[in-house]
Write a structure and sequence with these properties.
The complex is a heterodimer.
Chain A (H helix, E strand, L loop, with lengths): L3 E4 L2 E4 L5 E7 L5 E8 L3 E10 L2 E4 L6 E7 L2 E6 L8 E8 L8 E2 L3 E5 L1
Parallel strand pairs in A: 2-11
Antiparallel strand pairs in A: 1-3, 3-8, 4-5, 4-9, 5-6, 7-8, 9-10, 9-11
Chain B lengths: L2 E4 L4 E4 L4 E3 L1 E4 L5 E7 L5 E7 L5 E4 L2 E4 L9 E3 L8 E8 L6 E3 L3 E6 L1
Parallel strand pairs in B: 2-12
Antiparallel strand pairs in B: 1-4, 3-9, 5-6, 5-10, 7-8, 8-9, 10-11, 10-12
The chains are: A mainly beta, B mainly beta.
Chain lengths: 113, 112
């Protein structure tokens, strides 16, 4: 089984809808991250969390919110989706004990019509 | 702020050719440097890393050396295979921070 899983893997939604992307990990890591990937722009950090009570905004947090329900779960919500949020979204985890390496999930491809 | 610049792709090579993908960075202090690889339909995987000047990271025949004097971390492989076809991302991480700064990615296509 994969260490970092994301659901759904693909999602099509309409402008104005609220959607949630979920991430779960079995690595026991404290730190979790949400990124979006756009063609020609690489990956950009949306939010990150060092533990259940510590959530921080990243480079492009506007229009997004997150919830860290447990050490193993970190959800990303789009309160009112818009077309320019169409992208590939990745969750990642890391553990200071393991160095700086981040471990990525397989991604969620989101299309907002 | 910190940034990473890598060569645009796609890079198209024949099998067994030599590969170089250039990466330069700007940072305050001395960041850790990484190469991640993304195979089609998958998430990113760490390929190699280096945490201080003159360190060489290596994995699966790929190498990159942390050059402080040229602020570079170029990825090289002596003989590429079709299975190396993927998108390669260079990234930096400032000392004492958790944030990865990614380059825009370079697509490598290897043909038999």
């Amino acid at each position: 089984d994969a260490d970092v899983t994301q659901t759904p893997r693909n999602r099509i939604t309409k402008t104005g809808k609220r959607i949630m992307l979920e991430c779960s990990q079995t690595k026991g890591h404290d730190r979790m991250y949400w990124y979006r990937q756009d063609p020609g722009l690489g990956l950009r950090l949306i939010y990150y969390s060092f533990d259940v009570k510590d959530i921080n905004k990243g480079e492009i947090s506007d229009g997004y919110s997150v919830s860290r329900q447990a050490q193993a779960k970190f959800s990303l919500s789009l309160e009112s989706a818009i077309p320019n949020q169409t992208a590939l979204y990745f969750c990642a985890t890391s553990d200071l004990k393991g160095g700086e390496t981040q471990y990525f999930g397989p991604g969620t491809r989101l299309l907002v019509l | 702020g910190d940034s990473v610049t890598q060569m645009e792709g796609p890079v198209t090579l024949s099998e067994e050719a030599f590969l170089t993908i250039n990466c330069t960075y700007t940072a305050t202090g001395y960041p850790s440097l990484f190469w991640y690889v993304q195979y089609p339909g998958e998430g990113l995987q760490l390929l190699l890393k280096a945490t201080k000047a003159d360190d060489k990271g290596s994995n699966k025949g790929f190498e990159a050396t942390y050059r402080k004097e040229t602020t570079s971390f170029h990825l090289e492989k002596g003989s590429v295979q079709v299975s190396d076809s993927a998108v390669y991302f260079c990234a930096s991480q400032g000392y004492g921070t958790d944030k990865l700064i990614f380059g825009t990615g370079t697509r490598l296509q290897v043909f038999p």
